[in-house]
Design a protein that fits this description.
heterodimer, A: 293 residues, alpha+beta, Uridine Diphospho-n-acetylenolpyruvylglucosamine Reductase, domain 2, Uridine Diphospho-n-acetylenolpyruvylglucosamine Reductase, domain 3, Enolase-like, domain 1, 3 domains, five-stranded antiparallel β-sheet, 14 strands, B: 762 residues, Aldehyde Oxidoreductase, domain 4, Aldehyde Oxidoreductase, domain 3, eight-stranded mixed β-sheet, 21 helices, 27 strands
């Protein structure tokens, strides 16, 4: 039995926007895998809910005419993992979200909820950040596009206006074409866990596969929000595919990230793991891109 | 060869449980029940000075609020031990229904009764409690220091109990020239049972009595504890125990039954339900004792022991619960496993401001084996010997007799279980192969053994009662006071009852529910004793029923008693094997006879004055990713000698569950506390890292079946033993892989990070 003040069910995106404006105190609920847990814990007890879960138009993955990949915000993790467009162009995202919780959570949880929560540990977040994804928000004045790095404001807070809901996550063609990536979720067990640190790396290699034309890296739980490591990226970009490059890439990570000490893990431990993950993810990305290392 | 015992028959409750038909406490509790919720303290050590319930009382649906200022000042014990009529052996009575003097973060200070869960939860949040606060001391050594706040009167330095072992002369023995001293400290964590069904109970009043339905292992003991807590005659309390979703020792304690019983008396006997959340189960039920163990071995160059010392410091938390029993049992297992003439042992159980430690699967032995079996590998390393061969040389020999329990090691079990484990895991080849590795990812193999007492004799009462009632169709109902808690004893009992009476197992209707009004007296499920203990009373009662049936058969068949037998539900003339009638025909005649009607039943008590050593081992193979500080368990096998298997498939399942618990104990599980406040940091199943299916390799369970001579069915302990040797086997495998001795569990990446850094590996 949930301590819920009211439950409003949106019938369309416009209706959801209207409900947001009519009930500013209400919380949006999608798959409910976080909101209901928090409500039970007492953190969101007594809140009104606006459910957008019935909006099927926000489900599914599609390719737009300009080559942009659109992921509807209500697309479940298990759907993303099995989607052929994702598997062909950004398989690492499907692999990353396949590490969320357990099978039931992955069937109910949505990528929109995962990002709108604003938590640094979300398994989708580091890969979306590393691939320059763009968040689509819909409000009373229509659509607004925000690069995902800017969408995250601080821990638990995202750039979502009082009239808006998130309607899609977009991956422009330039952001994914010829890139290959790898994600490592470092957690304390092999399922039903939240990342101690998550690292997502992707690379574009030169035609001869000898040079790293571009490298991107993002972390979850290396700071209050998912973050890129620009110094590490610079240390790899344009550099030869080699173990020296991998080592330099790993070492530079520490210039960028800022993990904290907590009872879950010490700062020193998180830093050590972050460096190791960066190196392993880069090597695996190079292999996936056809490089030899 | 028995027709029913020794067969892997399907669990008698399998279909009901798999389809959801089986009724648990919440299924049985009427929907009209009032909901009770407990207000828990938010300080670990202090005194409640005031409670403001005014806001909570205004919440619609709130029926009644009871606080620590309202309950009787009548301390009671909670441990699920048989009561002792000797006051010196009674459990410590240090609990009240609700406590003004709070002794851990999460102690019970008030209770709300409401019409529904939402109102109850809102009221709990609206209650304001004020405290006078005292220092928070979470560690045993801090709590033992002079000047530390005393948690309970009469226990100086917070020491609940201290017991000793003094065998031979330790001080003289260590003077022997040429001895090697091997010393270590081994720490085990606070863990929780994590049974699927949280503790839940409901209570109402009828005819001036309190009727409680509870998820418990020990209904007859709960009746006594509730009677003591409420100060009412024990017969005024009736406890019903339906199917339960696991217990593992947490429910071998009076948890919230006394409070729930009290609450119904405060609302005119209306039905009150108290259903613990998972968060409460972690903190405000019971946990396993964290024990810090110090071992010193004085070893001769040939590996034999001149003298050994062991010291154990058990963290008891805020209340006594099972008290010193757990730590004492752990230390008590030390002298036997590797016999040595000169042993000095000291066990301390110390009150601290942490959740209360009680019984948990293994009762001190998982802690003792982690320390003792880690230490044996340390000794082998110091001697430069292969640890398994070394174990075989010094482990309890065949013929060893326990001076206290009179247990005997009748067979060459240790070598037999080690042989099986070695063969399965290919130990010798891998042990050689894994020497001198250098890369970042290394493999290792390790082993640990254990011994385990089957029951509690001669420390406490061991008695079992059984009732059998014959139906018209020749089937029987069987009742015992020992309880089905998921371990499968209903099935094993059905098999033994069928064997004892001489009927097909399908004709045995085991009464799974215990109801203290109608079930024969028994102390419940604990101590890995059910199959062993129940076997005596089932055999005796079955024999008695069979005797009565055959005597009745004499009247119907005109044959002599000695020429009759009951086999597979048929009355047989022994001389020629002819079937004279079925048991159903006899039973129908017996009940409806116009000349001699008789209700054929049997009931008896058997007092067991024996105990039995149960043995086994674990082999583990690991892959250690040194830079990532991670251990991957590649292979694991447990080999057990629990005597003759009553149901091999159920025995295997029992071992799988224990191995899973041991894996979590070794690698990931630990209840953490904020050092300043004593608040638990991870009392939920996300942050408490219970191992999952994905963290397990294939779990291999094998057996050596040396029939236990004291048992009518040749059986002995298997309930707890599978949880005892896994963690040290994993530890020893990591030691083998990396050369780094991790003397604490769980061996998490955080622990490995520190140890590998210290060793210069990363």
């Amino acid at each position: 039995m949930y301590d819920m003040a009211a439950f409003y069910e949106a019938s369309s995106v416009q209706d959801a926007v209207a409900l947001r404006l009519a009930h500013p105190e209400a919380q949006i609920i999608a798959g409910g895998t976080d909101v209901l847990v928090q409500m039970r814990e007492g953190k969101r007890a007594g809140k009104a809910l606006i459910s957008i879960y019935g909006l099927d138009e926000l489900r599914g993955v599609s390719m737009e005419t300009d080559g942009t990949i659109r992921i509807g915000s209500l697309t479940s993790f298990s759907h993303i993992t099995k989607d052929p467009i994702i598997q062909k162009y950004i398989n690492v995202l499907g692999q990353a979200v396949d590490m969320v919780g357990g099978p039931q959570i992955r069937n109910a949880g949505t990528i929109g909820g995962n990002t709108c929560n604003g938590v640094t540990s979300a398994d989708s977040a580091s890969t979306l950040v590393a691939w320059d994804a763009v968040v689509e928000l819909t409000g009373q004045n229509g659509k607004r596009l925000v690069p995902i790095q800017q969408f995250y404001i601080k821990a638990g807070t995202v750039d979502l206006k009082p009239d808006e809901i998130q309607t899609g996550i977009l991956l422009p063609k330039a952001a994914y074409e010829d890139y290959y990536g790898y994600y490592i979720k470092y957690a304390m067990r092999e399922a039903m866990d939240i990342a101690t640190t998550g690292c997502s790396v992707n690379v574009k290699l030169s035609e001869d596969k000898k040079t790293i034309a571009d490298a991107r890296i993002a972390y979850g739980v290396a700071g209050p929000v998912p973050m890129r490591a620009p110094s590490a990226e610079a240390a790899a970009k344009g550099k030869p595919v080699s173990m020296d490059t991998v080592a330099a890439f790993g070492a530079k990570v520490l210039d960028d990230i800022n993990p904290r000490d907590s009872w879950r893990a010490s700062k020193a431990f998180r830093q050590h793991i972050a460096v190791e993950l960066a190196k392993r993810c880069l090597m695996e990305s190079i292999r996936l891109a056809g490089g030899a290392i | 060869m028995s027709a029913s015992v020794g067969k892997s028959i399907t669990r008698v409750d399998a279909y009901d449980k798999a389809t959801g038909r089986a009724k648990y406490t919440d299924d049985l509790c009427d929907r009209s029940a009032l909901i009770a919720k407990v207000v828990h303290s938010t300080v670990a050590n202090g005194l409640v000075t005031a409670i403001d319930t005014s806001a909570a009382e205004q919440i619609p649906g709130v029926v009644k609020i009871v606080t620590c200022f309202d309950v009787p000042d009548r301390p009671f014990p909670t441990a699920g031990h048989p009561w002792s009529t000797d006051p010196h052996h009674q459990d410590v009575a240090d609990r009240l229904l609700l406590n003004r003097r709070v002794r851990y973060y999460g102690d019970d200070v008030a209770a709300v009764i409401a019409e529904n869960e939402v109102a109850a939860a809102q009221a709990v949040r609206a209650i304001r409690v004020e405290y006078e606060e005292y220092p928070v001391l979470l560690d045993v050594f801090d709590a033992m220091k002079e000047g530390a706040t005393q948690l309970h009167e009469g226990y100086p330095n917070n020491i609940l109990a201290h017991t000793q072992i003094r065998n031979g002369n330790y001080e003289a023995a260590i003077q022997e020239p040429g001895l090697l001293k091997v010393e270590g400290w081994y720490d085990t964590p606070t863990v929780q049972h994590c049974h699927i069904e949280n503790h839940i109970c409901c209570a109402h009043m009828e005819a001036g009595r309190i009727i409680i339905t509870s998820s418990t292992q020990i209904p007859h003991i709960i009746r006594r504890c509730v009677g003591q807590a409420l100060g009412i005659p024990w017969g005024k309390v009736r406890v019903v125990k339906p199917y339960i979703g696991g217990g593992f020792g947490n429910k071998q304690d009076a948890l919230y039954e006394p409070l729930c019983a009290y609450l119904t008396t405060q609302v005119g006997g209306r039905l009150v339900k108290l259903d613990c959340s998972r968060e409460e189960t972690f903190v405000s039920n019971r946990v396993r004792h964290a024990i810090r163990t110090h071992i010193i071995s004085w070893v001769r160059p040939d590996g034999t022991f001149a003298a050994r010392k062991v010291e154990c410091f058990a963290n008891q938390g805020g209340y006594a619960s099972h008290g010193h029993g757990v730590c004492a049992k752990g230390m008590g297992a030390f002298p036997q496993l590797y016999p040595c003439p000169n042993v000095e042992g000291d066990a301390y159980t110390v009150y601290t401001k942490r959740p209360v430690d009680g019984a948990m699967r293994g009762y001190g032995i998982p802690q003792a084996m982690f320390a003792g079996e880690s230490h044996i590998d340390d000794v082998a390393k110091a001697l430069g010997l292969e640890p398994l061969a070394y174990r075989r040389k010094v482990v309890m020999p065949v013929g060893f007799k326990d001076a206290f329990s009179k247990n005997e090691n009748y067979f060459d079990t240790f070598n037999q279980v080690l042989d099986k484990g070695m063969a399965y895991i290919d130990y010798q080849r891998k042990y050689k192969e894994y020497q001198n590795q250098a890369g970042p990812v290394r493999k290792g193999i390790g082993c640990a053994v254990f011994w385990y007492n089957t029951a509690v004799w001669p420390i406490s009462l061991e008695s079992s009662s059984c009732r059998m009632v014959l139906n018209q169709d020749g089937s029987i109902q069987v009742q015992t006071g020992e309880t089905e808690i998921g371990q499968g004893c209903d099935t094993a009992y059905s098999q033994m009852a069928a064997d004892a009476v001489g009927i097909p197992v399908e004709d045995v209707h085991i009464v799974s529910t215990q109801d203290t009004d109608v079930t024969p007296f028994g102390t419940g499920a604990y101590a890995s004793r059910q199959t062993y203990i129940g076997g005596f009373s089932i055999k005796q009662t079955g024999t008695l029923l069979k005797e009565r049936i055959l005597k009745y058969a004499v009247e119907l068949t005109r044959q002599t008693y000695t020429n009759l037998d009951l086999v597979d539900g048929k009355i047989i003339r022994k001389s020629d094997g002819r079937v004279l009638m079925t048991l159903g025909e006899l039973a129908t005649e017996a009940l409806y006879s116009l000349t001699h009607s008789q209700h054929l039943t049997a009931e008896s008590t058997y007092q067991i004055q024996n105990n039995a050593y149960s043995f086994g081992c674990t082999f583990a193979e690991v892959e250690v990713d040194i830079p990532l500080c991670k251990v991957k368990l590649l292979n694991i096998i447990n080999v057990h000698d629990c005597g003759t298997l009553i149901n091999p498939a159920l025995a295997e399942a029992q071992v799988h569950g224990g191995m899973s618990m041991a894996i979590g104990y070794g690698l990931s599980e630990q209840l953490l506390f904020d050092q300043k406040t004593g608040r638990s940091l991870n009392n939920n199943l996300l942050d408490y890292k219970l191992s999952t299916f994905m963290d397990h390799p294939h779990l291999e369970a094998q057996f050596v079946e040396n029939a236990e001579p004291t048992s009518p069915y040749g059986t002995k302990a298997l309930g707890e033993p599978p949880a005892c040797s896994g963690a040290p086997a994993i530890r020893n495998a990591i030691f083998n892989a990396t050369g780094v001795a991790i003397d604490q569990c769980p061996m998490t990446p955080h622990v490995l990070f520190a140890k590998f850094k210290e060793a210069g590996l990363i």
